[in-house]
Inverse folding.
């Protein structure tokens, strides 16, 4: 039984969305269609998760998607795709390259019966693309072919598959981990593609961190920053910022900002004001973040310095009615590394005597490009906009 389109997913004509809003916004609605995508890594990474999320996103927006899998039987692949939640199976087409290898029966329309014959393999894939005319094609993965057949012949067929996909208007994604090609050959592969999505997996402090970066290969094409991401069952991939710092002078409204943004939040308070920290967790349209709010008094600056290490970004909250606090706000901004993205939240902007943008910029010695968002945290006004702007800066969208 199929699922209904996901109302959270926006559809832009001529684009195929990734399903991660902050990245799609950077891409102008997604990757162009038709286009050629390379999901690339030098070492094993979680790029298959991204490819599966990409496929599920297409299915949920009403597209037909073709998945070529050299490693999993369709039964297993469908089961693993179900971890993203219900999907319309009738629009999911497989090229089964595995069942014959495992001597398993298969009911798939497109199946590769001789895995040792490259001509046969490519002919079946071409046939599946031409007949099903999918909006998205995922080939998982090209290193399977590169490891078994002549490299130049694989490269020739690679180009032919790109042309067939272009003829039917598909965005075709080739997954590839480079185990066999030299630098010149890898560069040739990348020049064949319109977009390269690179994946990097690291272990830091006992925590596995997955990041990706999108590069448009044409002259003047966009390039995002390295974007951290995680996987949630029944949801899929989300951008994940492990630490967003919320700080500012005393009584600016930091705790209220954390509460307004968070699904859940906790505060450690004494005598009505925060003397330790606030913690909140954000889940907002494909973006997850952990918020850490620090006290604003100078005597608690040591706490701020501890939390300011390795932050993804900074939300600096000021009281828009208190001009005398602007030097302190500037001082706190200067305590964070210059490379850390930030947004200024001019809170309590609804109160009489609230400062305007020009006065805030002058009082904090801000440039014209430093983002200022006017907020009323008690009513949750402007705070999500501020977080969205910060996310776009971190990703590389501003």
């Amino acid at each position: 039984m199929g699922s209904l389109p996901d109302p959270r997913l926006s559809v832009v004509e001529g684009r195929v969305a990734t399903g991660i809003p902050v990245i799609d916004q950077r891409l102008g609605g997604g990757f162009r269609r038709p286009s050629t995508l390379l999901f690339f890594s030098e070492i094993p990474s979680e790029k298959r998760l991204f490819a599966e999320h990409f496929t599920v996103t297409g299915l949920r927006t009403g597209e037909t998607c073709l998945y070529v899998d050299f490693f999993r039987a369709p039964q297993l692949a469908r089961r693993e795709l179900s971890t993203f939640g219900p999907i319309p199976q009738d629009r999911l087409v497989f090229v089964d390259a595995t069942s014959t290898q495992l001597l398993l029966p298969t009911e798939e329309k497109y199946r590769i019966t001789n895995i040792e014959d490259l001509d046969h393999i490519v002919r079946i894939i071409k046939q599946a693309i031409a007949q099903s005319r999918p909006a998205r094609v995922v080939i998982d993965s090209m290193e399977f072919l590169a490891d078994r057949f002549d490299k130049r012949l694989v490269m020739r067929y690679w180009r032919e598959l790109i042309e067939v996909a272009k003829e039917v208007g598909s965005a075709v994604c080739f997954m590839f981990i480079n185990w066999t090609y030299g630098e010149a050959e890898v560069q040739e592969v990348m020049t064949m593609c319109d977009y390269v999505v690179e994946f990097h997996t690291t272990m830091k402090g006992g925590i596995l961190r997955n990041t990706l970066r999108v590069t448009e290969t044409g002259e003047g094409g966009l390039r995002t920053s390295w974007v951290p991401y995680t996987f949630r069952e029944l949801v899929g991939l989300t951008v994940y910022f492990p630490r967003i710092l919320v700080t500012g002078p005393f009584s600016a409204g930091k705790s209220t900002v954390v509460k307004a943004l968070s699904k859940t939040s906790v505060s450690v308070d004494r005598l009505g004001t925060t003397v330790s920290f606030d913690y909140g967790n954000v889940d907002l349209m494909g973006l997850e973040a952990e918020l850490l709010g620090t006290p604003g008094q100078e005597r608690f600056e040591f706490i701020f310095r501890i939390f300011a290490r390795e932050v993804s970004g900074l939300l600096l909250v000021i009281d828009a009615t208190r001009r005398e606090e602007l030097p302190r706000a500037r001082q706190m901004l200067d305590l964070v590394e210059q490379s850390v993205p930030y947004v200024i939240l001019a809170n309590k902007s609804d109160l009489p005597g609230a400062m305007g943008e020009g006065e805030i910029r002058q009082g904090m010695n801000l440039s014209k490009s430093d983002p200022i968002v006017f907020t009323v945290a008690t009513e949750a006004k402007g705070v999500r906009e501020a977080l969205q702007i910060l996310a776009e800066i971190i990703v590389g969208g501003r």
